[in-house]
Amino acid sequence: MSARNLADLDAFMAVARARSFRGAAGIRGISASSLSEAVRRLESQLGVRLLNRTTRSVTLTEAGQRAFERLGPALGEIDAALDVLNGLRDSPAGTLRLNVPVIVARVVLPPIASRFLLAHPDITLEVSANDTFIDVLAAGFDAGIRYEERVERDMIAVPIGPRVQRYAAAAAPAYLAAHGAPQHPRELTAHACIRHRFASGATADWEFKRGAHTVRIRPEGPLVANTLEMQIAAAVAGLGVIATFEEVLRESMRRGELVPVLPQWWLSFSGPFLYYPSRRHMPGPLRAFVDFIRGEAGRATTS
User: Is the torsion defined by CA of 170, 176, 179, 185 positive or negative?
Assistant: First the structure.
């Protein structure tokens, strides 16, 4: 079987798991048209239709369902065999696929990934960033990064990045001069707030904590956006108060474009975790990555 045959089978499995060409493309970080071409090529070679396609959905044909059930274990065995061979190399090689939250891709992972790839030049890292909680293994990823409350209990979790993070609130000096600085989180209900919308369509409450006191508010304001860049620009322009990860606001606060709001109430929480399943033959690139972040954590505690 050629490498193209395996790639086409892998493309079919990705679409079958996601039940969508667009969804599978988003997860894999490739175009939907390339996945469609791979599946058409596979169907032509086999002489049988594997997927029923409409403008609204993708479903498995009977042949597709049988192929899906048999190919999963078979491709898993191929991956395991390649991992065993990879373990005999002087250095690991191959592709490591990670699914991570957008905030991790933005502020946590870049420096770690750069150091890792410099140390392992034969590994290719593929990162898909989204805030949708998916079954990372079923979607074709080797591992995921999530915050503690979102990590499945049957997974192995390894700390990665900062162990403590904070949600910070800030506003432009001009906004605070015009509207006053809130002295208590509940006063934010009378302020213009810049909110974040998740991929699910939901917006979140803002939570603040000081000592044993926790305050949760439902912010309202002139802007709801799913991009941090637009939210920060609106806050710098003086449209209202923004609340998000401290790392996102740090540079704007350093330049004086934003100033802290209620810093004594900023909520602290534990940093993210790399998580992956327990299995006998861990892929070489994943094992190298786990060893790398554990090594970095060990050096940090002894320095």
Answer: positive
pTM: 0.70
Task: Delineate the domains of the chain, giving CATH numbers in brackets.
Answer: 3-71 (1.10.10.10), 94-158+272-302 (3.40.190.10), 164-270 (3.40.190.290)
- φ/ψ of 263, rounded to 5, equals -60, -30
Question: Do residues 150 and 181 lie in contact, with contact meaning Cβ atoms separated by under 8 Å?
Answer: no
Cβ neighbours around 40 below 10 Å, total: 15
d(CA 87, CA 177): 62
Q: Are strands 193-196 and 241-245 parallel, antiparallel or unpaired?
A: parallel
Q: What is the DSSP letter of 165?
A: E
* Per-position b or e across 63-76, b if 16+ CB within 10 A of its CB: ebeebbeebeeeee
Please give the Cα distance from 48 to 78 (Å, whole number): 24
Q: Which residue shows structure tokens 């032509």?
A: 44
**Amino acid at site 63:** A
Q: How far apart are CA 91 and CA 72, in angstroms?
A: 28
- Host H or E run for residue 302: helix 284-302
What H or E segment, with its residue span, contains residue 129?
strand 123-129
10: tokens are 């892998």
Q: How many residues does the chain have?
A: 303
pLDDT one digit per residue (tens) for the chain, 303 residues: 555 677 888 888 888 888 888 888 877 777 888 888 889 998 898 889 999 887 777 899 998 898 888 887 777 777 767 666 655 555 788 899 999 999 999 999 999 999 999 999 999 999 999 887 777 877 788 999 998 766 666 788 899 999 999 999 999 999 999 999 999 999 999 999 999 998 778 898 999 999 999 999 999 999 999 999 999 999 999 999 999 999 999 999 999 999 999 999 999 999 999 998 876 567 889 999 999 999 988 776 555
* Signed CA dihedral, 157, 161, 163, 169: sign only: negative
